[in-house]
Amino acid sequence: TKLLNGRKLENQQFTFVLNQVDDLGNLIVKIQQVKNDVDGAVNFDDIIYTQADMGKTYYYQVSEVNDNNAGYSYDSNIYTFTIKVIDNGDGTLRTNKTILKGSMNVTEAKFANTYTTSNVSLQFAANKTLTGRVLENAQFSYKLAYLGEDGKSNIPIEEVTNNSNGAISFAPLTYTQADMGKTYYYSITETNDSKPGYQYDNR
Q: Whole-model pTM?
């Protein structure tokens, strides 16, 4: 089974190998390489045992291939399967299976990966123009507001003033992995200070 933390698992995203080994873990033969499905299942082809295998014990190892894809940590665990082929005494065979994760007995092979992103910052900026006289430093005020993911909220974030060149700069906003796949809406508005002689931008 494949588990992925940090983002949704995709079909055919990770690769797994099945090898036959001896009782010391030395490679005998590479059997098959497969990929996970969208639900995390990792399925190898059936191995058929015949009367010639009766009373024998076989060892297999399952591991994940590290594809070195950026942002992912890979599971380095190796699971060893011990299969004993047993005669039922009635003309049929059965198998007895044990699974080891290292030296620990487990009931199934589980591979867990984690996807981690770096943070990204975004800085909102605007420019002020004034017609009719020279623009002064910190002459007008501007508000940055968060409108929510639906664009219907109005939550103030920061209020700043222009500089003498008209530049309007807000502090950077930082987005983390928790924001991945989301859309946010913001507004920048000019504060109407009702100074005599000025017409304000109400857009």
A: 0.75
